[in-house]
Amino acid sequence: MSDTVTDAQASGYVRSAAVVATSTGTDYGVDIRAGHHRLAADEPVSVGGADTGPNPIALLLSALGSCTAITLRMYAQRKEWPLEGVRVHLGYEKDAARNARITRRIDLLGSLDEAQRARLLDIAERTPVTRAVRGDVPIVPAQRRAG
Predict the structure, then answer these.
(1) Can you list the pairs that 119-122 forms with residues at least 24 positions away whose Cβ atoms lie under 8 Å?
(2) CATH code given to domain 55-138
(3) Which of 8, 59, 67, 112 lies 20 to 30 angstroms, CA to CA, from 37?
(4) In the structure, what pLDDT confidence band is assigned to residue 3 with cuts at 50, 70 and 90?
(5) What would the pLDDT profile of 22-41 be if each residue is shown by its tens digit?
(6) Burial (0-12, 13-18, 19+ Cβ within 10 Å), 120
(7) Rounded CA gap, 58 and 7, in Å?
(8) What does the alpha-carbon distance between residue 63 and residue 41 come to, in Å, rounded to a whole number?
């Protein structure tokens, strides 16, 4: 075991996820490693990329949508509610002044009553990724790890 203490450990935080994004070469393609999973990101051809993967905004929307669906499924299972499925529709929009917003529509499938539907939609407003996107999670510089 290493004697190296990470920034997270020193500050009392416990790391629950880690990703490494690597860009090499002159194009915009990025190799992403999330644990043992490999992903790719790129930009569309129209802006100089090769379109070998979703652009970073699409990956952000994917994270938001998947976190929303997983969180609602977990909550409904704990409550033993008849949630059969969750479909999350997301969009990234800009106005003429280049102000951006994310739109999210959540379809809850199953024989849920109105109170259950309302509670699940309330829970969706507080998922971990929702909170991060809304700015509730600071982004801080990390020190280079030894070794």
Answers:
(1) 120/72, 120/75, 120/76, 120/81, 120/83
(2) 3.30.300.20
(3) 8
(4) very low
(5) 998 879 999 999 999 999 99
(6) buried
(7) 29
(8) 13
